[in-house]
From TrEMBL:
The keyword DNA-binding appears for this protein: yes
Keywords, sorted A to Z: DNA-binding
Name listed for the protein in its UniProt record: ISSoc1, transposase
Domain Cas12f1-like TNB as annotated: residue spans: 246-286
Lineage: Bacteria, Bacillati, Cyanobacteriota, Cyanophyceae, Oscillatoriophycideae
Listed Pfam families: Cas12f1-like_TNB (PF07282)
GO MF annotations in UniProt: DNA binding
């Protein structure tokens, strides 16, 4: 498996080169339009489309052999995307063209690229900073995309392919307890104030209340817009949160449920007797659960005992503690 990093590089284009760049972009779009209109609309296999239309498309557009193949590939990719969305294929604008190792070369010594045009090749100096130079140094890019922006400038999006870095194995897990007074408390004792985010949440709450009031009165169009906004906002937080109950009420040391009074926690187990910040205690419990997320059959480490009731451990972080009677 490999990862691809795209580096956007502005081209230093001479006045006489602008016409050549516009010509190759127009020819690429023209080739895409020709392929899309002269082959069955439902055909998305590149090899099948290429066997049907390659010679005609190349003669019609004047592109090189390799760029004609890339135009066919783009049409097939757009058809697949349109099919997934249930929409027709959009028109092809003369704003980009695809290059590969046969039609594009990069020279690091003077930061120059060579691109295939309709007739021959043209060299362009890269107008880039130290950040782009750092990314391109020592690389041998095999693909790029020529793009024209609204202001008339030309950019080359150079793709760098590399193997992703190995993920180091570790047995350390950082638990984070989320709240309102302190938005986050880590198992290492670090705290982050929730004052600012609470103010933002309260402001959004007032906005929702205002929208709900407006949704019940006003014109039909204003009521419809209010309902649409409320529907878009509903559940947006819930989709990205997993609730773990009783993490700050369970002692991280002996796993006995104790008493929490505001920010303070006190363990009821006389043999333990731990006392301290309830959020720090909860973060330590979350860290213990995180270590056992992939543990087969769940985690028994979070089993809690309280008088005559056993609280069975959560088998995944999305589960909450379940009370079961003891025989």
């Amino acid at each position: 498996m490999s990862q691809v990093l795209t580096v956007s590089c502005k081209l230093e284009v001479l006045p006489q080169q602008v016409e050549k760049l516009d010509a190759v972009l127009s020819a690429f779009a023209k080739c895409c339009e020709y392929v899309n209109s002269h082959t069955p609309e439902k055909l998305t296999n590149q090899i099948a489309v290429q066997s049907l239309i390659y010679k005609e498309a190349r003669a019609h557009s004047g592109l090189s052999a390799q760029m004609t193949i890339h135009a066919i590939r783009r049409v097939c990719a757009n058809r697949k995307t349109a099919k997934q969305k249930g929409k027709p294929v959009k028109g092809f604008a003369p704003t980009s063209a695809t290059y590969d190792s046969r039609t594009f070369t990069f020279r690091e010594s003077d930061w120059v690229v060579s691109l295939t045009m309709l007739k021959g090749r043209e060299k362009f100096k890269l107008h880039i900073g130290n950040y782009q130079k750092h990314l391109l140094a020592g690389q041998n890019p095999k693909s790029a995309t020529l793009a024209k922006r609204f202001d008339g400038s030309f950019y080359l999006q150079i793709q760098l392919e590399s193997a992703p870095p190995a993920i180091p194995e570790t047995e350390d897990v950082l638990g984070v307890d989320l709240g309102r007074t302190d938005i986050a408390v880590t198992s290492e004792g670090e705290k982050f104030s929730g004052k600012e985010i609470t103010q933002v949440r309260d402001r959004y709450s007032r906005v929702r209340a205002s929208l709900q009031r407006q949704a019940s009165k006003g014109t039909r169009s204003s009521r419809r817009r209010c309902r649409q906004v409320l529907k878009r906002l509903s559940g947006s937080e819930r989709r990205f949160q997993a609730w773990l109950n009783h993490t700050s009420k369970t002692c991280h040391g002996c796993k006995v449920i104790g008493n929490r009074h505001g920010k303070k926690f006190e363990c009821l187990n006389l043999a333990c007797g731990w006392m301290g910040d309830a959020d720090v205690n909860g973060a330590k419990n979350i860290a213990a659960l995180g270590m056992l997320v992939n543990h087969p059959g769940g985690s028994e480490i979070m089993s809690c005992f309280l008088q005559d009731v056993v609280l069975r451990a959560a088998e995944s972080p999305r589960c909450t503690a379940i009370a079961v009677s003891v025989g």
